[in-house]
Write a structure and sequence with these properties.
heterodimer; A: 1061 residues; mainly beta; 22-stranded antiparallel beta barrel; five-stranded mixed sheet; 13 helices; 54 strands; 45% strand; globular; B: 661 residues; mainly alpha; two-stranded antiparallel sheet; 24 helices; 39% helix; 6% strand
């Protein structure tokens, strides 16, 4: 806003200049007509000034046109807010096109920091500010575009399901292993926001995006800043004529990679093999007759031959996005209004017989209204209203084999792999029951059972839908008062906002009608209903009508207020002094608390401050602090003090350096050190660690008396009081360097070291003989992380019509557990210790290879259960003669990537531009969950990868992808009991990959054409994301890691048009 | 700086000052009221202290101590029912969680995640899988005892009730220790709670030697018995709570366990030592332990008799005509499944009656053909059935084992035979079934529901045992949904006689934890072991049980019918007779499994083939083929004791693992 006011005063000043310009005439003057434009559109209100006569100045109109009288050999200075000021020699031309280069905010003058702004040149902390154009892409989810674009940010996405596709991101990697908050604090215009709020932001409406990475940058957030902070500011109006921008996009979305299922002949043959290879006398599952008939495709209704992926999933889905924004204003009032609509469809197939849509359909709407009012010449009010509305419709969520919740889209994909492809047809043609008004879904009773039907994933997918509606409304008011009349450089500000969130879900579904075929002489004679709803029929009664089940309802409300004093002044030429002092308080209420303690308000309050001093633009020091309180802790632990210090040295401003400035334009070293906290520790249900959580009215027990009807409530303790619990503490050190070479190559390097202590851990080593009902927690854990972030930028205007930029980022962050709550392991079990390993280290058994033969099995340490040749052979790490969980070892890289990088270019020639960006992730591993893809287990289908490469009597390959087949790879409550299902190095894969993350080709309509259509600007473009992926892992998109059976990440091709009026 | 608009807005200067003042005030208020703002917790948030402010609140805590009693009436939780050789459950049976207790007889016990883990309360080793292990139960008992012993707490609690509650909680604490002892042998005794703030090293308790564990529990039971009521006066709301006879009976059982071969002079575990090197198993045999057990049994019997607890006999209800054959069987059946019958010493009650109903559903065979044929729902839970071994274990009608009877030949027990008119109260007249099912003792017919057996029920349409229900369980007799246990036989005794297929409501009964017949047999066993040869009382107490079962005395039966006529005269012979008598009398009551362990006969009995008839067959000739479903293995001596979880040993270096695990 400072910037804006600055711009405003320039504007006023310039206007006055224009009036006075006529007084100064000169010889040899010509009339110069010109047009000011940027790569994509005309720039209005640019200021064009004569260099040797600054009083002669004009303002370009809204189409960028200007007329100025100037000496034929004169020089024009062209400036406009947000663009780099240019000097243009007239050289006698009476018509000049001026292409303005957008000011790169990352390296620009002023960037957003905690509770304010700072000049880039005086900054000592590690803050990355990126141009929002960099994170624009054909997606409705901003978080999916962050990977590789921001140095110091590690980001990955494990699903592409609309509505569920937020990426995970960590500033400088994962710094803690507590059960609480591990990801950054997100503030949008100072409003604390969720990842989804960030995801739904439209890049069109963003003016600033900063990532605060070190202690000096985040200390003002005190107990909330330990995981870093993301600051986003939305656009505000510019005074001038109303501007109207429209963006419309249509995109084609498809899976980056589908799971490949084997053909069903292989399926049946291998299912039989899976039986016989374990029990030569076992009954085979599929008769040769069935296999032969299926192979001949005799009758798919009698010999079903389903490929569930292709039957359930559409190859391509089409989505639309639109954003409209209007801005403008006068010197009294400015406004920026924006509306957007995004439609994201899933790729689940529908059935025309259903009256409802079971596919994923996420419509998100948002409105934004930012109004700035100058109440007095020194008082500014800012009123912002934001509304975000999500209407979601999608398949009914289910559960996986280990009873974990799945989202709706993931359920469809899960069922596609889960279900038997040859037991029944997906649906019978309606001609078999012409009068039925429901789909004739196929099914069959599972052989050997009396009352269990198969899962028909097609019927499941089509049987109903879940819809959720989410609204987030925020109203924000801030007042800024210039207090120059008290002392120059002083200003004050108050801001408060309230956020109201409401969400509810409902489920509506039918119970499918399941039919099976009746046969006469091997021919289909008709079909009959299996679940006929009669008395004695054990199957769910079918319904054609929908039943309804209410889902979650969540409402909450937040109030926040802050009041700040700012001081910024230069004394003389050399001393610049800045100070900021702020008080904040926040109150959060929820309407969905499960118990009294959780129903109490969540509150934070604190004071923070910053003092900066710069001497001669060479020596910079900064001190920041936060003093914060949280209601979660006992009175003596309620407030924490988080100080930090920083210093900077601009070497390039030293006189001795001047000879080098032609090569090294700018060189600055920075150092910061400080303490930050994290009060969001523990699970959400564990708010008041200093209080015990006792339920005096627990479940009934007793049942005494003749009729067993005398019962009393029981007393249960969910938590024991521990008054000592307090924040997580993070001590951070940052050393940075900003370097500009030959004006155009800009390099920023930051190295950091973080030590996180007081990590809340469950004291799991307390023996169970203590008989505690809840395991206590304590601030015992500690971890450290180290790493480096590098950003590189190169921008060059090569010729008048040709410009190019190249960018690259590199992030490396490695974590290490220092203190972990674990038993004091003896030397032969030291392998189990987490100390010294990464926070997200994978642990598992060390698989050697598959057993070669029974002799080897007999002469090896005892494995799990009855092991045969072709089963995984594990190493007995602790040498006790048997394989057990005590033989787990750390292996591979962590599951959170340690390294992420990105590089790309943009270039434009005349009206065309093209850009591409590659993103890579390295030093990451994941485990395949063998249970999830075990063929034939329960009703599981068969992955082609397993069909192609498994151990068998004929292919005794000890390094085959899949061990000896088994139809019964059992597990218990999520824990495997079957030898091959244990977490082991056998299932570990390298998760590193590189992909063409985004690419774009654009065309900016030429000014002549614009004029014809009365447009200010127009651009058409084609872009895409996730277009190419390079990885050694082929079964699914490597970024999804161990969730590869879920809804795949999307590859998107998009066509868009951007119009300005 | 000379602002161009200054003149115009000059008048607003004071306004600006006020605004500034307001901002300063806001900031200072925000800073100064900090403490209050963060004090969101009201004063009266519930704590444990609230549980001891009044009698009605304290009663909840007492009930909480009761709430940890394992669900012994449910085969899903009770290894005594499921892992014994009496029954077999199909693999992957959906009605009984096939992943925990059902894996025990299949060799699924392990150290990484032990099945029926009473220690940590996982894998159904407690009332549920939410982790309510026995040590949690003990901690709650200790909390209750600490508080209730403080007379300043619960001011409205009178001293008599207070003493009674103390006695009940001491009993429960003893019982939870007993459950652990039965499974693990030497265990840590937790007499006092270790404070939650104690350093980790203090929480790392040690296992105590078997003898001292037994003495601790025994003393605690004595102390409990001293303040427990002799009987329940308020039967309407207190039946099921602990009485003095229960405490004394548990003590009797505990001491019999302690005197049994597993714990008395067992050389197999002589090497098991605690971390300090002390021996956890006393490997010297002591006959005194049997004497002590016998004394405790007698004391318990006397206490029970004084309260009118007596062997149950069935009274034919008015309006019904029953033959002696059926009355005898009803005495046997109802001694288990008639609620609050005269023989019950400790009946387990729970709020959730479904556990008992589930157990009964398992016993409920398809005997009511009329109803079932008219569209009755026959699928259900009945998928756990008696093994052929159990069916063979019952005596002949002469009261001796089938392989000892010199008058009846059972060598070809699967031979087919047609039931005669005279046999019509046991087997449907004119129907064909196996030789095994003919000429057996009343307890066979009372306990085993076999194909074509008579199944008398309270709703018998004839109001008599003539023309009453009979069982059919050959393939296809009720369509594809008919549930037949894999062995084809049902646990008839388990189903209360008031069950009606028409309503399918189960009359639930308190599960017999201890009944008088059990106590009599324990006494006979202890007496027999403590002398050199069986004394008269040994026979007396066994014969009391046999008489109720409609059998002649041991002496008479063996002398007259056995091909080993002097067997009962020796200590070893009588031991074998008592053990068989226990197996028969207490079958399907969760006792035999633990008996086999303490007798150290499990290595033979819990191994070998599990067999039954062929339920897939439709005709008798195919149906009565003995099929093997599983070959059980028992690894001795390892499997006599439960393993400790690996994690427990890692977390507490003072613990030692049981041998060979």
């Amino acid at each position: 806003m400072l910037l804006l006011r600055h711009a405003l005063s320039v504007f006023i000043f310039c206007s006055l200049s224009v009036i006075s310009a006529g007084l100064y005439g000169q010889e040899n003057e010509i009339t110069v007509k010109g047009k000011v434009r940027s790569d994509s559109s005309a720039i209005s209100s640019a200021t064009v000034t004569l260099k040797n006569n600054p009083k002669r100045s004009v303002i370009a109109d809204e189409k960028g046109n200007f007329v100025i009288k100037a000496p034929a050999n004169g020089t024009l200075i062209v400036s406009s807010t947000g663009f780099e000021t240019q000097e243009i020699e007239i050289q006698g031309n009476s018509s000049i096109g001026i292409l303005m280069k957008a000011k790169d905010t990352k390296l620009g003058d002023v960037i957003v920091v905690g509770y304010g702004t700072q000049r880039k040149t005086t900054l000592v902390s590690s803050v990355t500010s990126i141009d929002v154009k960099e994170i624009k892409g054909p997606t409705s989810n901003l978080t999916t575009m962050l990977a590789g674009k921001i140095p110091g940010l590690i980001s990955f996405q494990t699903t592409g399901e609309p509505g569920n596709d937020n990426a995970s991101f960590f500033i400088r990697g994962l710094g803690t292993f507590g059960a609480g908050k591990v990801n950054p604090l997100i503030l949008i215009d100072g409003i604390e926001s969720s990842t989804t709020d960030l995801a739904r932001l439209q890049p069109d409406n963003i003016s600033g995006f900063s990532v605060l990475k070190d202690a000096t940058a985040t200390a003002v957030y005190g107990a909330r800043g330990a995981n870093g902070v993301i600051l986003v500011t939305t656009k505000i109006g510019q005074s001038g004529k109303m501007r109207f921008n429209v963006r419309a996009e249509n995109s084609f979305s498809s899976n980056t990679k589908n799971l490949e299922l084997a053909d069903n002949i292989s399926y049946m043959n291998l299912a039989n093999e899976a039986v016989l290879t374990r029990n030569p006398l076992g009954a085979v599952l599929y008769s040769q007759t069935k296999i032969d008939h299926t192979a001949r495709k005799d009758d798919p209704l009698i010999y079903p031959d389903n490929n569930w992926i292709s039957e359930l999933i559409k190859p391509v889905t089409i989505n639309q996005r639109a954003n409209v924004n209007i801005s403008g204003g006068s010197d009294k009032a400015k406004y920026y209004l924006a509306m957007s609509y995004n439609l994201d469809n899933g790729n689940v197939r529908k059935n025309s017989l259903n009256g409802f849509n079971n596919n994923i359909k996420l419509q998100s709407y948002s409105i934004l209204s930012n109004v700035t009012l100058n109440l007095t010449p020194t008082t500014e009010a800012f009123i912002s209203l934001k509304g975000q509305f999500d209407d979601y419709n999608g398949p009914i969520p289910g559960k996986d084999e280990t009873n974990h919740d799945l989202s709706g889209g993931a359920t469809v994909y899960h069922n596609a792999l889960y279900s038997n492809p040859v037991a029944f047809p997906a649906v019978y043609p309606s001609s078999y029951m012409p009068y039925a008004t429901h789909p004739l879904f196929g099914n069959a009773v599972i052989p050997g059972s009396t009352n269990n039907l198969y899962t028909n994933p097609y019927a499941q997918s089509l049987s109903g839908f879940q819809s959720t509606n989410t609204s987030t409304l925020t109203a924000q008011l801030s007042l800024k008062q210039n207090l120059n009349f008290i002392t120059p450089g002083l200003s004050a500000r108050v801001m408060s906002y309230t956020t109201r969130y409401a969400n509810f879900a409902v489920t509506r579904q039918i119970s499918p009608y399941y039919y099976t075929s009746s046969m006469v002489d091997g021919k289909l004679s008709g079909i009959y209903l299996i679940n006929d709803g009669s008395i004695g029929n054990p199957f769910a009664v079918p319904t054609e009508y929908l039943t309804y089940a209410p889902g979650d309802k969540n409402v909450n409300s937040t109030f926040y207020g802050e009041a700040a004093l700012n001081y910024s002044r230069n004394f003389g030429q050399k001393h610049s002094v800045g100070a900021m002092f702020i008080g904040t308080l926040r109150n959060y209420l929820t309407g969905n608390a499960k118990n009294l303690q959780l129903s109490l308000p969540s509150r934070n309050e604190g004071v923070s401050g910053r003092v900066t001093y710069g001497y001669d633009n060479r020596y910079l020091v900064e001190y920041d602090f936060g003093y914060n309180g949280s209601e979660r802790f006992a009175e003596n632990h309620r407030f924490g003090f988080f100080p930090s210090v920083g210093a900077g040295w601009v070497v390039s401003n030293e006189s001795f350096f001047q000879p080098l400035t032609n090569v090294v334009t700018n060189l600055k070293f920075r150092f910061t050190y400080g303490l930050v906290g994290n009060d969001q520790i523990g699970k959400a249900d564990d708010r008041f660690f200093y209080l015990s959580q006792v339920d005096l009215n627990g479940a009934l027990a007793g049942g005494f008396g003749k009729l067993y009807n005398y019962s009393r409530n029981t007393v249960n303790t969910a938590r024991y009081a521990n008054p000592e619990i307090t924040w997580e503490k993070s001590t951070q050190t940052n050393i940075g360097m900003d370097l500009t070479l030959v004006k155009d190559v800009k390099v920023t390097v930051d190295a950091f070291h973080q030590k996180r202590s007081n990590i809340l851990m469950v004291r799991s080593t307390i023996p169970t003989t203590m008989g505690l009902q809840a395991t206590p927690s304590a601030n015992v854990g500690a971890a450290q992380s180290d790493g480096v972030d590098i950003a590189l930028d190169y921008q060059k205007t090569i010729t008048k019509n040709w410009w190019a930029t190249v960018r690259g980022t590199f992030t490396y962050a490695k974590s290490k557990v220092l203190i972990n709550e674990e038993p004091a392991y003896a030397a032969n079990n030291a392998n189990l210790s987490h100390v010294g390993n990464s926070i997200s280290q994978i642990y598992g058994l060390a698989a050697e290879r598959l057993f070669i033969d029974q002799i080897e099995v007999n002469n090896s340490p005892t494995q799990f259960g009855n092991v045969l040749a072709g089963d995984i052979k594990y190493r007995d790490i602790n040498q006790d003669g048997k394989i057990s969980v005590a033989d787990f070892v750390p292996m591979g890289y962590p599951t959170t990537p340690e390294m992420q990088y990105g590089f790309g270019f943009s270039t434009g020639y005349k009206n065309f531009d093209i850009s591409a960006f590659f993103q890579g992730t390295a030093r990451v591993s994941f485990l395949i969950d063998p249970m999830a893809i075990s063929p034939f287990f329960n009703q599981h289908g068969l992955l082609n990868a397993i069909s192609q490469d498994h151990w068998s009597e004929n292919n005794r390959n000890s390094y085959a992808f899949w061990p000896r087949l088994n139809i019964n790879s059992d597990y218990v409550g999520g824990a495997p009991t079957y030898n091959n299902n244990y977490a082991s190095s056998w299932w570990m894969r390298d998760g590193s990959f590189m992909r063409l993350k985004s690419a774009e080709i654009g065309y900016n309509v030429s000014p002549a054409a614009l004029k014809r259509f009365h447009l200010g600007s127009a651009r058409v473009y084609v872009n895409g994301t996730n277009l190419l992926t390079f990885s050694s892992f082929k079964n699914w998109d490597p970024e999804m890691g161990s969730s590869g059976m879920g809804y795949p990440i999307q590859k998107v091709i998009n066509i868009g048009v951007l119009l300005g009026f | 700086m000379n602002h161009p608009f200054n003149k115009k807005y000059k008048g607003l200067t004071t306004k600006r000052l006020r605004l500034f003042a307001a901002m300063l005030v806001t900031v200072s208020i925000a800073v100064s009221c900090t403490k209050k703002f963060l004090d969101v917790v009201p004063d009266n948030v519930a704590t444990v202290d609230n549980a001891f402010t009044s009698k009605s609140e304290a009663e909840k805590y007492l009930v909480t101590c009761y709430s940890y009693l394992p669900y012994e009436e449910d085969p899903t939780y009770n290894p005594g029912l499921t892992a014994s050789d009496e029954t077999w459950i199909e693999d992957n049976e959906i009605h009984i969680r096939s992943t925990n207790v059902a894996q025990l007889p299949r060799g699924g016990q392990n150290t990484s995640d032990p099945i029926i883990n009473y220690w940590d309360g996982s894998r159904d080793g407690a009332l549920n899988s939410n982790g309510n292990g026995m040590f949690r139960a003990i901690r709650d008992c200790n909390v209750f005892l600490e508080n209730i012993s403080d007379l300043k707490k619960v001011p409205d609690l009178d001293i008599d009730t207070r003493q009674r509650w103390i006695g009940e909680t001491k009993f429960l604490k003893a019982y939870y220790h007993f459950v652990l002892f039965r499974a693990y042998g030497p265990i840590p005794v937790v007499d006092k709670n270790i404070p939650i703030s104690a350093p980790l090293s203090e929480t790392q308790v040690k296992r105590q030697a078997v003898d001292s564990v037994v003495n601790y529990i025994s003393d605690l039971l004595d102390s409990a018995a001293a303040t427990l009521p002799a009987s329940i006066a308020n039967t309407a709301s207190e039946l099921g709570r602990i009485t003095q006879p229960i405490a004394l009976s548990l003590k009797a059982k505990l001491l019999v366990y302690a005197a049994s071969p597993l714990f008395n002079g067992n050389p197999d575990f002589a090497t098991l030592q605690g971390k300090g090197g002390q021996s956890l198993f006393n490997s010297t045999y002591s006959a005194d332990k049997w004497q002590r057990a016998a004394t405790a049994c007698k004391a318990a019997i006397d206490a029970c008799t004084a309260q009118g607890i007596s062997l149950y006999t069935f009274q034919t209800p008015a309006g019904t005509t029953l033959t002696d054959t059926t009355v005898k069987q009803m005495s046997i059946r109802n001694a288990m499944s008639e609620p609050w019958n005269s023989e019950l010493i400790w009946g387990l009650t729970h709020t959730n009656l479904g556990f008992n109903a589930f157990f009964q559903a398992i016993g409920g065979g398809a005997f009511d053909r009329t109803y079932i044929q008219n569209g009755g729902i026959t699928y259900g839970n009945a998928l756990m059935g008696p093994t052929l071994k159990m069916a063979r274990l019952f005596y002949t009608q002469n009261g001796v084992p089938i392989d000892e009877d010199k008058t009846l030949d059972f060598s070809n027990y699967s031979a087919l035979r047609v039931a005669t008119h005279g046999e019509r109260f046991n087997i449907k007249e004119g129907e064909t079934t196996a030789r095994l099912n003919f000429e057996r003792e009343p307890r066979f017919y009372a306990n085993i529901g076999f194909d074509r057996c008579i199944w008398y029920m309270a709703n018998s349409p004839s109001h008599s045992d003539e023309n009453t229900f009979y069982l059919f369980c050959r393939a296809g007799e009720f369509g594809q949904n008919s549930p037949i246990p894999i062995t084809t036989m049902y646990m008839k005794k388990v189903l209360n006689w008031h069950f009606d297929w028409n309503t399918r409501l189960y009359l639930v009964y308190p599960y017999p934890m201890i009944r008088l017949a059990d106590l009599y047999l324990l006494y006979a066993e202890a007496l027999n072991e403590s002398g050199n040869a069986p004394s008269a009382d040994v026979y007396t107490y066994v014969n009391l049980i046999r008489a109720r079962a409609g059998l002649t005395t041991v002496q008479n039966a063996w002398s007259t019918y056995s091909n080993n006529p002097t067997k009962y005269t020796t200590k070893a012979g009588m031991r074998s007779i008592i053990q068989r008598e226990r197996a028969i009398e207490l079958c399907f009551e969760g006792q035999r499994y633990w008996d086999l362990l303490r007798w150290k006969t499990a290595a033979q009995e819990l191994a070998g083939n599990v067999t039954g008839w062929d339920r897939t067959a439709k005709t008798p000739d195919l149906f009565y083929r003995e099929l093997t479903f599983y070959t059980r293995r028992f690894v001795a001596p390892r499997d006599y004791l439960w393993p400790l979880q690996d994690n427990d040993l890692l977390n507490n270096p003072n613990l030692v693992q049981n041998p060979n695990w």
